[in-house]
Amino acid sequence: MxxxxxQESLGFLLHDATRAIRRQFERLAADHGLTTSQWRVLVHLxxxxxxxxxxxxxxxxxxxxxxxxxxxxxxxGGWVSRVADPTDRRVRRVELRDxxxxxxxxxxxxxxxxxxxxxxxxxxxxxxxxxxxxKTLISNLSQPTETDHDR
Length: 151
Prior knowledge:
Blueprint: H1 10-29, H2 36-48, E1 51-52, H3 53-60, H4 64-76, E2 80-84, E3 92-96, H5 98-118, H6 124-142, H7 146-149
Antiparallel strand pairs: 1-3, 2-3
């Protein structure tokens, strides 16, 4: 049994690190008028291209109605558009508008600077090890287990 304090446990450390990164990103990106949630939508669209709102809800791990409201605000701001899916007219895909595509390099610079700051003092091999360890953690927890099938 571990005698580490809750503040030193893996869960607390991951949560606190994520919160600190999110808070700093929001501070640095505030000039662009987007929230962290809106930035996350843009990142998924930058990476994956246009997609249905339902898929965005899955990726963001939030309720479809919340994504709908989020997309409403982003559409009003000129960041994204909803368009009919060419293969299924019942589906509305969310796609980037020019305003969003133009901000992508700045968003990347903000993120890169933030990650450099977050990892300052860690040698390159430790940075690589941390990233690989986090990928492994995510992969391990993304795989279904036998107990998952019972639920």
